[in-house]
Amino acid sequence: MKKRLLLLLIAATPLLSFAQESTALIVQEKNTSWSGYVTNRFWDNWFISIGAGGEVYFGQNDSQGKFGKRIAPAFDFSVGKWIVPTIGLRAQVSGFKLRGYTYDPNNMYVSSGPDNDGLFKQSWKQFNVHGDVLLNLSNWLGGYRYDRFYEAIPYLGFGIMHACTSADNNVFTANAGLINKMRLSDAFDLNVEIRGSVFEKKFAGEPGGKRANGILTVTAGFSYKFKNREFKRNIPVAPVVMAEDIAWAATAKQLETTQAQLADQIAYNNQLNNELNRVKAEKQAVKVEKEVIAAPRAIFFNINKADITAKDKVNLEYMAEQMKANPDKRYTIVGYADKATGTPEFNLQLSQKRAENVYNVLTKEFGVNPSQLKVEYKGGVSDLFDGNSLNRVAIIE
């Protein structure tokens, strides 16, 4: 009887080897920024922003005054929507107060003066209503990532500026700027915005001189992003199979063949399990050793991802059956990330999430006792295996 059982265990060895080798292939989507994304519903990917800071007016004689005395308070409020990860639209109301200098005592905005140089101080309230086209430069150049901490967003737009002192003093404006966005949470961002506005010189009520006047504004504030906040691909992307820095296109036929081979191996494994159960059920005074010693199991991941694929779940299900058959045995799940990609902090979190996802599949989907498992994570590594793509892994020992 022992001899018979030993032969069955030897016959199961090719399945273990096949399962380990099959995980050596990593299917990764191409990292594109423009194609394949949808905005979901109309109300998805909207945001509102508020900010406060200062602005400086550049008119005909303003350079004659002290720069510090020309800084005035500024506020802005924005509503916008991201159409795709790289392109967005927004409407903004900005401004509050402007300060300048003039030699004309009859200027409509004169508030005090003159000083020793004959300059009169100007002060007036205004607001600028404009629409902007936003370009997420970080998603365009680096690929879409929802959890990226910093994003650079330049923009261009046009609007109308109104001076509250004179009801007729309205001018068209051209606006350009840069939003420095820092992610605080899924819903909130911290923004530091630098904006320049150019418009006709008549806005300050002074004829002659420069062809155009301008305003430089710097504000800081917060954005709130309404649900849904992430983008998802709408069209299938050709898979790229990565193995030791060699990439080739995997056709649907090749994937189907691999799945068929794996299904055959699973059927063969079930046949072996049935035979083992029959042998154990025989009423003979033979002590059968239940523990099956298996080599460490590796689950590979796509770049910056921690998702468990359906193919890997097949392997984890088989591993779960072995664990449940040996309830006294303890296993350690160790997560890793590719050191060449991402910051050390991001890689540590990514390796933790990979190990925890393997733990959750084994315990919640396949019923492994949590007391049998221990989770560890090492962050980014470069020498675990030969090749960056092979270091994106979780190993069960």
What does this structure look like?
- By secondary structure, this protein is α+β, with helices and mostly antiparallel strands.
- Helix content is 25%, strand content 39%.
- The protein contains 6 helices and 18 strands.
- It has helices at 2-22, 67-70, 137-142, 252-281, 310-325, 344-365, and strands at residues 26-28, 37-38, 46-58, 71-82, 87-102, 110-112, 120-135, 150-163, 170-183, 188-200, 212-225, 232-233, 240-243, 246-249, 297-300, 331-338, 373-381, 393-396.
- The strands form 4 sheets. The chain has an 8-stranded antiparallel β-barrel.
- A hairpin with a 4-residue loop joins strand 9 (170-183) and strand 10.
- Helix 1 packs antiparallel against helix 4.
- It is elongated and about 110 Å long.
- The two termini are 30 Å apart.
- The model is unreliable at 5-32 and 285-293 (pLDDT under 50).
Give me the number of helical elements: 6
Instruction: Label the structural class.
Output: alpha+beta
Query: Which H/E pattern describes the elements?
Result: HEEEHEEEEHEEEEEEEHEHEHEE
Radius of gyration: 32 Å
Query: Which band does the percent of strand residues land in?
Result: 35-45%
Number of strands: 18
Instruction: Categorize the overall geometry.
Output: elongated
Question: Biggest β-sheet: count, sense, barrel?
Answer: 8 strands, antiparallel, barrel
The whole-number mean of residue pLDDT values reads 80
- List low-pLDDT spans: 5-32, 285-293
